[in-house]
């Protein structure tokens, strides 16, 4: 619950909101200010009794019978001396051009503020209320009502005279009247009535709930929300009534309209005034002193609540206790609530004070967030509504947020917000950098500094780099990598790094950073030296990016020592910049590196390094024997004699066997396999590859006295050599391991071969038959003979020009055609003739003849 307090002895006595509990996190819905200027002077010597609000001005009535017209700020624009006693009610029409006034001594005046026309009447009883027709300015709506002991309707007739009608009487004094469109609502001691001026019918009677309350002490509050919704507050109860049209079939003698109460509920305190706020209600409460749950400090203070009506209850949205002047002396009837529909302004009227409540705008919302130190939310709200806020600036709020974060010690968050808040204001950026330097937090702001098109002075960046260089080499290196080299004086930073390296010459971080600085400064040779010294992974990227191949011709060994694979790939990819001869020359003293280079070169292209193939034989033999045999197989430029010599010197049997076979000495190769390797399987494989009967004979002769070799031959020879030849040569009585299994395998292999042959024969016969049938069908088809065909012998048209004469045509199945007289005599077989062309080519399927005779 927010509280309104007086601000000391200030003349304006500014109205402010404070929370009953200082730590409350609930934001108020309304803000308050005291209506001052002329009002202050009026209420010092008089007391307010009533007030009416128009969109353009205010009309204030006092206990001493005066009526003041005020502007919205409370300045007096007009003054009327109406009576010597209390003004009970002031009524304005919608245009604000006519006013109706009634007073406690029975005076009623209705007149135009800008015309001379008027109505003046003195009654013999107090007139509590007066209400003008909302369209009183128009000639056909010159009507108003007064309320004392009776409800009187005054109408001006065509003779310009006022006609009086009694609308209601006999239920005590009338205390409130509200006129909206054609509906007049009034309250007396019994309840609330609504009268339809159009149909001249009273359409409802809403009874008072708590009859024990004195109507003069706890008057009824009436308020029209719209042309059909009336809000009634009386005592502690609120009712919302909706005027509806009655179904014509139900009318009979009933009014054409009826009232439905859509919401009725009890409140905690006594109601002094009501006003609508969208779909909510603003209620002015009078709090009695005997409320046990109220603290002594807040007793008797009026409350202004915003509530959400429900069918049988309400929900409190906000509640403010108002400290108005002399609130201790006031009763429920001393307070009134008036509102301006156009601007959602609410006026709380008490005898010695008038307070204006208005909805809080976005500026007020931001004020509250700043007061609660919710800077991030305030900044977000300002950014979203930057076009609507008037008293705040987004950047100023952001600066307050940054100051708050710095005070909290959250330097990283403060630095991060600088990027968003300071934007393109370079002056503010520099101020913040110096502030962070003062508090020793340059590191925090360094990663957020501008580094794009908008930049600070180079001295700012250099100051931060020097700070990092003193305390954090890794952080310094990170900034050098992330910041463009144009932000600072590169030479100055290089000198600073060099000075530090004099004290710590082996520091890898500083050396790497210095290489990067040399790169920014386009001193690539210096950078390359450092990278090679450090064996840094970026050395290859540096060479490629800046085309430094000319600079590395004498550093190939260093590159190979660092990473052989990457170095060789780079050299092979750029053969046009560093020739193979140059690389071989540089690696001459490092044969192990030379081998790696030449091996990859050979893998890429077997012919490019052909002049080094002889040299590679020794390199493979020395450093990479597993790849020697593949090299010998793939190379067509390798001198076989040299290779054989090397392999025999080193006793490389497999390589020697391959070379001997390649040189045509297969018998010697087979002998080495059997004698040196003693590997029957390899010997059999070798014999299969060569497919030479003499080799098989040598193999059998060598193996005939070696039972394990005989077993191997029996298991593998069956498909290449007749196993009977081997079996006949085995000495009788020789013990051969697994002989039975080997013989079984031979028989199985033989059966398999027989089955395969039979299967192949069946397939062959089936295919031959199928093709023969297809050929027969093809040959049995008719052949078209027309003028376009020619004789293959005389090359004349096959058909004569005169078809009436007899002629003969021979057509072979091969589709060649001849005149009968152009064909030679029959061949060796009587009655059978062959196509001359196909017979000559030995491909004719056409032994048959189709003859055409006529």
From TrEMBL:
Q: Give any Pfam family that matches.
A: zf-RING_Vps41
What GO molecular functions are on record for this protein? zinc ion binding
Question: Domain RING-type, which positions?
Answer: 791-839
Q: What is its main location?
A: cytoplasm
Q: Where is the composition biased (Acidic residues)?
A: 14-26
Any one GO CC term of this protein is: lysosomal membrane
Which keywords does this chain's UniProt record carry? Autophagy, Cytoplasm, Cytoplasmic vesicle, Endosome, Golgi apparatus, Lysosome, Membrane, Metal-binding, Protein transport, Transport, Zinc, Zinc-finger
- Where's it found, cell-wise? Cytoplasm, Cytosol; Early endosome membrane; Endosome membrane; Late endosome membrane
Q: Does the keyword Flavoprotein apply?
A: no
Residue numbers spanned by region Disordered: 1-31
Q: Per the UniProt entry, what is one GO biological process?
A: endosomal vesicle fusion
Cite the repeat ranges for CHCR.
568-712
Q: Which domain of life is it from?
A: Eukaryota
> Protein transport: present as a keyword of the record?
yes
What does the record say about its membrane topology? Answer: Peripheral membrane protein
- Cited function: Plays a role in vesicle-mediated protein trafficking to lysosomal compartments including the endocytic membrane transport pathways.
The family assignment reads: Belongs to the VPS41 family.
Mind telling me what this protein is named?
Vacuolar protein sorting-associated protein 41 homolog
Q: Which organism is it from?
A: Larimichthys crocea
Q: What is the lineage of its organism?
A: Eukaryota, Metazoa, Chordata, Craniata, Vertebrata
């Amino acid at each position: 619950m927010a509280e309104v307090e007086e601000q000391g002895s200030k003349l304006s006595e500014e109205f402010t909101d404070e929370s009953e509990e200082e730590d409350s996190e609930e934001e108020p819905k309304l803000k308050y200010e005291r209506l001052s200027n002329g009002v202050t002077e009026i209420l010092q010597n008089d007391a307010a009794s009533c007030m009416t609000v128009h969109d353009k001005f205010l009309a204030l009535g006092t206990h001493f019978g005066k009526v003041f017209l005020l502007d919205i700020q409370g300045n007096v624009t007009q003054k009327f001396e109406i009576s010597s006693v209390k003004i009970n009610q002031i009524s304005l029409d919608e245009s604000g051009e006519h006013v109706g006034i009634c007073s406690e001594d029975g005076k009623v005046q209705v007149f135009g503020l800008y015309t001379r026309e008027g109505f003046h009447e003195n009654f013999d009883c107090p007139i509590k209320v007066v209400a003008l027709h909302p369209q009183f300015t128009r000639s056909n709506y010159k009507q108003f009502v007064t309320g004392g002991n009776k409800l009187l309707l005054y109408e001006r007739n065509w003779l310009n005279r006022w006609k009086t009608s009694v609308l209601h009487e006999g239920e005590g004094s009338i205390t409130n009247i509200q006129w909206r469109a054609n509906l007049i609502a009034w309250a007396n001691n019994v309840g609330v009535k609504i009268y339809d001026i159009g149909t001249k019918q009273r359409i409802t009677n809403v009874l008072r709930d708590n009859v024990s309350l004195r109507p003069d002490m706890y008057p009824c509050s009436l308020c029209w929300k719209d042309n059909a919704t009336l809000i009634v507050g009386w005592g502690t109860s609120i009712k919302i009534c909706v005027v509806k049209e009655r179904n014509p079939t139900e009318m009979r003698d009933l009014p054409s309209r009826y009232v439905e109460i859509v919401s009725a509920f009890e409140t905690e305190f006594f109601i002094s005034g009501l006003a609508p706020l969208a779909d909510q209600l603003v209620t002015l409460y009078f709090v009695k002193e005997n409320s046990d749950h109220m603290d002594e400090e807040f007793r008797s203070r009026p409350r202004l609540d915003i509530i959400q009506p429900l069918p049988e209850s309400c929900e409190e949205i906000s509640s403010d206790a108002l400290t108005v002047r002399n609130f201790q002396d006031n009763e429920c009837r001393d307070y009134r609530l008036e509102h301006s529909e156009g601007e959602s302004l609410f006026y709380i009227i008490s005898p010695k004070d008038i307070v204006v409540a208005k909805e809080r705008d976005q500026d007020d919302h931001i004020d509250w967030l700043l007061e609660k130190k919710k800077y991030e939310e305030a900044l977000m709200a300002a950014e979203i509504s930057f076009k609507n806020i008037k008293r705040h600036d987004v950047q100023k709020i952001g600066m307050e947020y940054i100051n708050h974060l710095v005070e909290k010690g959250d330097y990283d968050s403060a630095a991060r917000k600088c990027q968003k808040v300071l934007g393109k204001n370079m002056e503010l950026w520099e101020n913040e950098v110096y502030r962070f330097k003062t508090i020793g937090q340059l590191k925090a702001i360094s990663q957020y500094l501008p580094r794009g098109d908008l930049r600070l002075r180079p001295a700012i960046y250099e100051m931060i780099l020097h700070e990092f260089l003193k305390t954090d080499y890794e952080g310094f290196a990170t900034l050098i990598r992330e910041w463009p080299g144009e932000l600072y004086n590169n030479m100055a930073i290089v000198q600073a790094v060099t000075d530090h390296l004099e004290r710590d010459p082996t520091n890898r971080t500083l050396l790497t950073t210095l290489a990067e600085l040399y790169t920014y400064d386009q001193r690539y040779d210096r950078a390359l030296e450092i990278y090679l010294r450090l064996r840094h992974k970026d050395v290859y990227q540096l060479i490629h990016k800046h085309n430094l191949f000319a600079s590395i011709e004498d550093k190939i060994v260093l590159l190979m020592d660092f990473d052989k694979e990457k170095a060789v790939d780079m050299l092979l990819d750029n053969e046009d910049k560093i020739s193979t001869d140059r690389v071989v020359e540089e690696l001459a003293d490092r044969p192990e590196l030379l081998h790696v280079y030449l091996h990859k070169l050979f893998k890429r292209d077997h012919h490019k390094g052909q002049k080094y193939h002889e040299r590679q034989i020794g390199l493979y033999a020395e450093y990479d024997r597993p790849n020697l045999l593949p090299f010998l197989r793939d190379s067509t430029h390798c001198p076989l004699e040299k290779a054989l010599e090397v392999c025999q010197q080193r006793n490389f049997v497999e390589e020697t066997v391959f070379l001997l076979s390649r040189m045509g000495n297969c018998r010697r190769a087979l002998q080495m396999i059997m004698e040196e390797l003693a590997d029957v399987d390899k010997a059999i494989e070798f014999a299969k590859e060569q497919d030479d009967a003499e080799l098989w004979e040598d193999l059998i002769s060598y193996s005939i006295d070696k039972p394990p070799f005989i077993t191997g031959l029996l298991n593998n020879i069956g498909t290449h050599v007749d196993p009977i030849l081997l079996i006949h040569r085995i000495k009788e009585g020789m013990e051969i391991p697994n002989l039975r299994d080997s013989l079984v395998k031979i028989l199985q292999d033989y059966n398999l071969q027989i089955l395969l042959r039979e299967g192949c024969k069946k397939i062959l016969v089936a295919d031959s038959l199928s093709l023969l049938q297809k050929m027969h069908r093809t040959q049995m088809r008719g052949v078209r003979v027309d003028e376009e065909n020619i004789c293959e012998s005389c090359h004349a048209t096959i058909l004569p020009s005169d078809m009436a004469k007899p002629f003969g045509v021979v057509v072979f199945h091969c589709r060649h055609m001849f005149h009968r007289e152009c064909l030679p005599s029959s061949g060796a077989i009587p009655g059978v003739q062959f196509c001359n062309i196909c017979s000559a080519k030995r491909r004719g399927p056409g032994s048959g003849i189709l003859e055409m005779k006529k």
